[in-house]
Amino acid sequence: MALSSRTAPRAPRPSIDLEVVATERLSDDLVRITLGGPGMSAFENRPETDKYVKLKFTTPAPVTRTYTVRRVDAVAGTLDIDFVVHGDEGLAGPWAARAQVGDTIELMGPGGGYLPDAAADWHLLAGDLSALPAIAAALEALPEDAVGRAFVEVPADDAILPLTAPAGVEVEWVVDPAHDPEALAAVVRQCDWRAGDVQVFAHGERESMKALRRVLFDERGLDRARVSLSGYWARGRTEDRFQAEKREPIGQIL
Fold this sequence. Notes:
The chain is about 20% helix and about 35% strand. It is an alpha/beta fold. A hairpin with a 3-residue loop joins strand 3 (about 50-60) and strand 4.
């Protein structure tokens, strides 16, 4: 589609080479990779708590995968990315599980779209392991007097991690080994709904997000401008198929 006369082309995101400087197994399902090296001098940080980068893998053709940045340490010159791993399933997960200090990877970005609004009366965050890095970053960015609820769906108790949040924000872990796409929607539907302006961040498995969409918009009538909602992945789909379906009715969240 041709650009309109009022639409400027998006500047290409910078591509930089980073190296693995540390690895940490957070749980059976999560591996944290800390990246750094000379390439970090070209990394242009952003304020959003859902900031993401594209990682380039060669298999043997170049393939990119999008991941949320968990944390940027400007003093140390590093950034952390948490990977969901399921054995040899997928591309990025197995790479992260085998990564060793000194390994290199090409990175493009970052982008981002959500930042907690200190003016909101309360905050609602919901997602699964794929959204945990962004939820954790958002909780850490909230003002000390913030209030709200955060719901994180995990497959088992051993996937629960310590999170830092303001005293007024309650974090609830939704343990759901069956991966019911209605699980998150059910707990959000039943939670005590505060009065006032709520800002929402809800990201995760596609069908789970569709169920949340019904709660947030059809049942609660929220303003879309106050809701960040999208699918990060789809159960039973490869990443490439999931991305392709974003242009089809089945892949539409909003």
